[in-house]
Amino acid sequence: MPTYDYRCAECGDFARMRRISERDEPCDCPVCGAASPRALVAAPSLAGTTAGSLDGGGAHMHSATCGCGSGGVKLAGRS
C-alpha cells in the first residue's frame, strides 16, 4: 500500500499507509483525531538549476554499450 501525506489544521503533517481507493478521503489525525485532508506536496526544485537548464539542450549521446537501452542514438530533444 502507498503512503499518503495528510495535514491536520491543529497538529500539522502526518503520513498514513492507505489503499489507493481511500487516498482522497480525509484521514483521522493520530494526535487529536480530527478528520484531516490529504496534503498535496509539490515536487522540490533542484538547487542551482533553472527551468532552461533542465530542457536537455546538450549534445550528449549515449554509447551503444552504456546500459541505458538507447542503443547509441541521440535522445529526443537533444541536438
UniProtKB/TrEMBL annotation:
Residues 1-41 form the Putative regulatory protein FmdB zinc ribbon domain. This is Zinc ribbon domain-containing protein.
